[in-house]
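Lecture 7, part B: from sequences to assemblies.

Below are the input chains for today's worked example.
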Amino acid sequence: MGSHSKTSGMAKTSGMGRRTLLKAGAAVGAIQFASPFIISARGDEPIKIGVDNPLTGIYTALGKNENTGMELAASQINAKGGILGREIKLVVEDSTSDKTDVAVQKARKLIQSDNVNFLIGNVNSSHAIAIAQVAAELKTVHIVPGGHADAVTGSSCHWTTFRICNTGAMQGNAMAGPLVKALGKKIYIIAQDYAFGHALHDGLAKAAAKAGGTIVGEEFFPLGTTDYSAVLIKARAANPDILVDLAAGDDGINSIKQAVQFGLDKQLHIAGMQQELEVIEGLPLEARIGTWMFEWYWKQPNVPHVAEFVAAIRKVTNKVPTARTWFGYASVWSLALAANQAKTLDAVKVAHTLEGMKLPPEVALMPGAPFFRAEDHQLVPSVFVGHEQAKGIDDPEDLFVVDQVVNVADVMPTPAETGCKLDFPA
Amino acid sequence: MTFLKNYGVTLLVWVVLLAVPFWFPYVGGYTGLGTRTIVMALAAMSVNFLLGFTGVLSFGHAAYLGLGAYGAGMTIKYLLPSTPLGLLIGVLAGTLGAMAIGAMIVRLRGVYFAMVTIAFGQVFYFIAFRWSSVTGGDDGLTGWKRVPLDLGFTRIDILGNDVAFYYFCLVCLAASAGIMALLLRSPFGRTLLAIRENERRARFLGISVDQHIWLSFVISAAFASLAGVLYAYLDNFVDPRAFHWQQSGEFVIMVVLGGMRSFWGPLIGAAIFEVLQDKLSSFTDNWMSLLGLFFVLVVVFFPRGVLGAFGRKPTP
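Predicted structure of the full complex, as C-alpha cells:
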C-alpha cells in the first residue's frame, strides 16, 4: 500500500545524563511551539483557492500536473485583474494518494484554518467524494478536477461540487462503440478496486452490452498493486478478444508493462478507456500500444488557443500539457469566471452562476463549447478516441493519434440516470 | 503544596486542553486539528493502558478503532440517526470484538501477541475493504453525518459548531482518562503493574495472570473503540484504513514518543505526532522522510519518551 518511512522502537533505559536529556527536550519542545505562520489581518487579502491534491504516492505525477495548470491559470487571471479586482493565491496541501482521512483533514484545514474561498481536489475519486462532503458541510464551492467516479456528480453530488473530468459512464458510452466495432465482442476488464476502477468498469460494462459486446471476465486489484501476474494469467485463460485495462497512474504503467512482457499483446488486443500522457511516458516503447481515450490532448491543430496554452506550459515545465494540466487550468478559470460574473464570493451565488456556464474558447481548448450541466454540476466536454504510438513523428511527446473526437453530450447519461439530487441550502 | 505536587501535571493538562479553542489558532492550529489530536490521544492512551501499565504490546489496536468507527457510522447510516446510539453501538462492537479475540490470544506473550493482534486487525481491514456493498469498500462509508445532541432541555449543535464538537470529544476524553486513572489506582490496577513488573512472581502469588491481561485488553479496546467512534464523527467518514496496521503502528509511535510509563505521555505523543504531520506536510513533499527521521531521533535520544525525559517518577 502506501510507502512509509515511519520508524518505531521500544524504549530502553540508557545511561544518558539527565542534563543532556533536558537540553534536548527543551530543544524539541521549542520546535513544537515555534509557530510557522500566524494569521495576519484580513482586509485586501488575496482571494485564496485551496488545492488539496496528491503530491506523494502513486498519483504524484497526475496531482502535480494538475497543480501546474492551476498555477498558469492563476497567473493569467492575476494579469487580467484577478477575481473582483483582488489577486488570487493558491494554497497547496498534500492530500497523499491513498489516505482519505489525510485528504479530509487537509480540506478542513484549508477551509477552517487558511480560510480559503474555494476548494479544488482531488485526483483520487474516493478523496474527491470525501472532500466534497466537507465542502458542502462548510459551504465552500469545490471543483473536482480529475476524480472520475460517477458518484461525485451522481449519488454523492452536492450543491457545492462541480467536476471538470468525465464520469465512468460518460467514458464507457464514448468508448464502447469504437471498441466493440473495431476490436471484437469478448471483453475482459481489469481495474483498480476502488471508486474510480468500479466507475469505469460499470460504465464500460453497461455501454458494451448495448453495443453488442460481452464481458467475459473481470478482475479488481487493490490500489498500488505491483505484481499483475495472477491477474493477467486469469485474463488470458478467459480468452477474450480485448483486454481492457482501466488502471490509472503507476498501476496503469505496471499493468500494461507486465501484460506486454507476458506477450498478451500478441494474443489479444490491449485497450482501455481513459489514458494519460503521464502513463504512456512511463511505458517502454514496445508497451505503447492499443486503443484508448484521452480526455484532452495537446495536439489539436485546428482548435484556437491550444497552441498558446501548450507553449505557456512548455515554458514552465519543458513538457507538453497533459489532460491533467488542462483539468487544473480549467478548474481555476471556472471559479474565476463564475465569481467575476456573479460579482460576489457568496457560495450559493457562485454555484448558481457556474450552473450552465459555458467555458470560453481560451479556457475550453477543445472543439465545441463545454458547459457545466445544471442538474448535476458535471462538465460536458468532448473526448478524443485514438491509438498510442511508440514515438512521435514530428514531436517526441506526440505519443497518441486521435482517430475521432466524440462529443460527450450525445452519449452521456441523463441527469435522472446519474441519481444526483442537489442539496442547496433552503 | 502536596496537592499541587500530586495533581499539578493533571491540572496543567486540563487547563491547556480546555483552552485549546482559544489559544490554538494563534500558533497556526485550528479546532479540527485540536479535536483530531485529542481523539488520537485517547486511542494512544488506550494502547498505553495495555502497553505501559500491563506490559503487553498490542500492534492491532486499530481493529477496535475501526470497529468503533464503523459501528457508529453504520448505526447512523442504516439504523437511526442518533449520536449517542452510534457511540453506544460503536463501543459495544469494539468491546465485544476484543472479548472474543482477547480470549483467543491472551496466552501469547511478547512478539507473538503483537503479531497475532496485527493479524486480527488485518482481517477486519480486508473485510471492510472487500465488503463494498455494506462498508463502502475502499471509498469508505459516506452519506451520513453526526447528529446534534438533544439533551431534552437543550440542544448542542456538535454538527455545525466545531468548538462544541471539540468539547464533546474532550468530555469523552475526560471520562475515559478518569476511569483509567481510577482503575490504575485500584487493586486491579496494582495487579496489572505487578504483572508488568514480573509476570512469574505475580503468577506465584496466585494472581490469575491470563484473566487479568484479558480484562486489561478488553478495557483498553473499549477506550480504543470510543476513540474510533469520535474519529468517525470527526470527519463524518470512515474508511478501511482505520483498521490498518499502519494506524496501530502510529498509536504505538505516539505512546513511545510521549513516554509509555507515564499517564499523560500518549497525549503529548499524539499532540507532537499530529501537529508535526500537519505542519511538515504543508511545507515539503518529503514530509514522511522528515517525520521518520524525527522518530528515529526521539527513540535514540529520549528512549523513555518526551515525558519520560522530564519526569523521574512514573505516575501513578
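Note for the exam: Chain B has a mean pLDDT of 88. Keep this in mind when comparing with the next example.
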